[in-house]
Amino acid sequence: MGQSHPPFAFSPAHRVEAALITDAAAPFCAVIGAGPAGLFAAEALARAGARVVVYEHKPSPARKFLMAGRGGLNITHTENLERFISRYGAAAKRIGPFVRAFPPQALRDFCAELGEATFVGTSGRVFPASFKASPLLRGWLARLARLGVTIASRHAFLGFAPDGALRLKGPEGEEFARPAGAVVLALGGASWPKLGSEGGWTLALNEAGVAVTPLSPANSGALVEWSSIFRADFEGQPIKTVLLRHGDATARGDMVVTRAGLEGGPVYALSARLREASATDGAATLFVDMRPDTSLACLTRKLSRRAPKQSHATFLKRSGFSRAEIGLLREARPEGLPRDAEALASLIKNAPLKVAGVAGLERAISTAGGVSFEEVDAELMLKKMPGVFVAGEMLDFDAPTGGYLLQAAFATGLAAGRGAARYLGLLSPAQTGLSPSHMPNSRAPAASNKYSV
Question: CATH number of the domain at 18-218+363-451, out of 1.20.1250.20, 3.40.50.300, 3.65.10.10, 3.50.50.60?
Fold first, then answer.
């Protein structure tokens, strides 16, 4: 995918003993992207003694993080750690070490340090007590300011100059180069691009010979071509407690009818499979069990108690089915619902819906694809670009909803920040810790204009 030795002259940083660090001597590190991964890397670096500037091309930091908090910020999950790690699928072995080094409880402790207690929901998901991202972010930004971290907004990443310096575009459109002892890239994926993650960084890394798996939507809605009647009547209506199945994979929860198809937790959980099947075969079939807690035999007995002349709509409504559920059954079987109790029960338990694909990046919750793990070392440094580290959704992994994406963002952000600190000579290989505040040689320099751009 390009040169094996790209023309970037990143030389090893001069090692500075932590005890001798002064504001003037502290190595400079640039973090690109002010999402959770970038901010966590910045905190780790600042506590280790680096001068840190976070460059963010939007007017304010962590916009996608704030957007996620509008519906109740799902920080992480409390399930068994090994089960938790298995949720990352093909990338579990590569993500696993970072999550083990910064597990869900450490993330909850971090929130508590910022004054935001967390609680566990009935599903095992973890939420801040306020259900919002904004109080957590305010406390975090205040702490980063006390640590001397500068956030330079409206600065776009353009790539690297031949000598390894960062190429940036400032607020007025001016382009300039900024040398740095180390760089942490935390530019996100490409979902919800209006919030800041546009995926344009793939071009710069491809030019450097770094293998990047093409970005595609993950945790996105299923596209279903509804009839005009169903769309008009039921757009925005929820369908509660269903079990969805595609092949041997299942997911349970609530879903919502949208103009373009279906959204909701169980839909997102199967979206990767639906995306791949649709790309390969042109379409996929999603099966819906509307009564997952009722056996086929029990449901058949219930449906057999039907008056001979009773209409489907009246009978199903009296049997506890909502109008949206009845409409969905008609979409699954447009030729008409069967009157036979067993056949009707089978349809309710296994209603087939033709899925044309999944919603695009502009609507996806997250992104699949990214920098291949073969391109980074154990500390997330690019092998072809010494001194450049990658964190968060830029990496090639696919996380389901439920707190897994944020957990990986924090864990890899911390790993990249630690790795950059060690590269700069600020930490020894043995120095670790569950959170940035536990890192040896932690320092809290006063905020200073000398750290600004």
Answer: 3.50.50.60
Between the alpha carbon of residue 392 and those of residues 247, 371, 405, the distances in Å are 30, 10, 8
pLDDT along the chain (453 residues), means of 10: 36 39 72 96 96 94 79 89 94 96 97 95 91 93 96 94 91 93 90 64 89 87 95 96 95 94 92 89 95 96 87 91 96 94 96 93 80 96 96 92 93 98 87 49 37 29
Closest CA to 409 of 423, 384, 390, 386: 390
Number of separate helices (H) and strands (E) present in the chain? 15, 20
**Ramachandran class of 193: left when φ > 0, alpha when ψ lies in -120 to 50, beta otherwise:** alpha
Neighbours of 427 (CB within 10 A): 25
Distance CA 343, CA 345 (A): 5
| Beta carbons within 10 angstroms of residue 72's beta carbon | 14
Q: Which residues contact 6 (CB under 8 A, 6 or more apart)?
A: 207, 208, 209, 384, 385
| Spatial distance between the Cα atoms of 166 and 178, rounded to a whole number of angstroms | 5
Whether the CB-CB separation of 352 and 285 falls below 8 Å is answered with yes
Q: Name the one residue in this structure whose structure tokens are 């095992």.
A: 124
pLDDT in tens, 121-161: 988 999 999 988 999 999 999 999 999 999 999 999 999 99
Longest dimension (CA), the chain: 90
DSSP class per residue in 131-186: S-SHHHHHHHHHHHHHTT-EEEES-EEEEE-TTS-EEEE-TTS-EEEE--SEEEE-
Question: Where exactly does CATH 3.50.50.60 map onto the chain?
Answer: 18-218+363-451
Each as own residue / partner, the long-range contacts of residues 323-329 (CB below 8 Å, 24 or more positions apart, any chain) are 323/233, 323/234, 323/237, 324/234, 324/237, 324/238, 324/239, 324/257, 325/239, 325/290, 327/230, 327/233, 327/234, 328/230, 328/234, 328/239, 328/257, 328/288, 328/290, 328/353, 329/290
For the chain, the residue count is 453
